[in-house]
Structure formats: structure tokens, C-alpha cells
Amino acid sequence: MYKPEVNDTTTKILKGLEEWAGESAHSSRFFDFYLKLLQIQAEAEERSGIPATGLGHEELNRRILDGTTLIKMHETDIDWNYASSIFNQLANLFGDYSDILPGFTSISDVALPAITAEIAQSWLEGNIIPSDTEKTVLEPQALATLMHHTLRPFLTGYGLAFKERFNQHSWRRGHCPVCGSVPSFSYLDKEKGARYLVCSCCNTDWLFQRLDCPFCHNVEQPLLSYRTDESGLYRVYFCEKCKHYLKAVDLRKVAEDINLGLEMIITADLDRQAQELGYTSAENRLLEDPSSEL
Ligand SMILES: [Zn+2]
Ligand SMILES: [Zn+2]
Question: Which ligand has the shortest distance to the CA of 213?
């Protein structure tokens, strides 16, 4: 089984974004912010590497069949002091760019929690603030966004460690089998045009039905639709039931390998168009502000 030695998921996205910006002469405050965010994450990712998970096949298969996500924070070897320092760096970065990131204006004045396995697990399960950190006055949404971006470089290594260890046909759920986060992107594969979802946090991709909403599991065909862009390369799926959307790239339309993490970022125009039509992203992240431009 192929397993890379080094986790360069974010480094590749960062390089791709720099090249893309160079070619398109793209520069903006939002773009500067994004580069700095990726630089911090790439460094954390490089230092964390790809962990040995220690999860046996039997237990792994049991979790997949039960619908339990593979990562449990107390089972990881994440250095929580280091994760806390990344959290602080990101909080400062978000504060520096609070003119374009509503919700982070007063971040320099608040007490930031130290990140522990317990807090991280709580975030993974959707319970944002455990009781012992309620002294922080950071808005729950802002805290969740920071947690997402803090944990991402630690979790992408687990995504790679678990990749190909689970049976794609045994999961088929709307959330990530590795970390439980919602997808922020999807693709149709080269061979059959099967739809795969891409995790917004750990970058894992997994097989999912084409005519099913991953966010509310609506399968009523009249309530599901998609639009294709002029090139035919990109799609946006819409669900009328939960009003969420999901972007996709059709890999049957491209000859070369593409970086899905990069595609996710540079298709911000599609997010803007979907949001103008009244749909929202299910992902908890900062790119949802339609006024934000790359
Ligand atoms: Zn994930
Ligand atoms: Zn839905």
C-alpha cells in the first residue's frame, strides 16, 4: 500500500495558489490573508507529518460500519501545546485581517483557551465550547472557525494515514469518515463520473451518491439540481430542502492532475454566485462572506 512519508497537502495548495496568483496577476487583501493562513498551516503540517494511527483493521471496520468517525482526539499523538501555539498564531492573523473578517475585530482583547484533546474532541462532535473555557468571550462561530483552521494541518496527516484503509462502499455518508466534518468540495471521477466528496477539514475524499444531498439526505429528485459553468468543468449542486450548495469539478474534463484543495479556493466565484441565489455553504468557515473577494 502506498503511503507518503511527508505530509505536503497544504504546501502543494500554497504553491499552487502562488502560481495561480502570479499567472492571473491576482492580489488583494483577502488573497494575502489566505497565503498567510496556508503558510502557518503548511508549517504545522510539515512538523506533524503522517502519524501511525495504531487502529487495527477490526476496530477500523467496526467504526466504518457503525458510522463512527475514525479519529478520536484522545487516541492521537497531537502535541496540544504546539496546537495551542498554532491557535494563537491564527487568532492574531484573523485579528490583523478583521477588516475583511467580520467576527474577529475584538480578538486581541479576549482570553483564548488552551487547546486540549478534550476541547478538540468536543469541537469534532459539534459541541463548540466545553464548560471550562466559557470564560472566553469569543463568539462560538469565531471559535469554531479558529478550531477548524487550527486542527486542519494536524488532521490532514490522519486523512493520509487512513486513506485506502477503509472500504469506500461501506461508508456512503454525508460527513467525513476520518474526522466527521462536512464536505466543502466534490468531484466526479475520471473513470465513471462517480461522485466523491472532499472533507473541508482533513482533505479526505469519499464516495457518495450523485442524487442525494450530503447535508440533509434529501433524495427527492425535484428538490435537487445542479448548474454547470460555461466550460463544463465545474458544477454547483443545490438542495431546495436545506438550501445548501456544494461545488464540484468534473475530472473527466481535465487531462492533467489537479489539486482539489486549490480548486476549492480558486472557485470562490462559484460560492459567490450560489450565495447570491440564496444558498449557503454547510461548511463552517470564513469564506462565506459574499463580499470577500480573493
Ligand atoms: Zn475529514
Ligand atoms: Zn439538503
Answer: 2
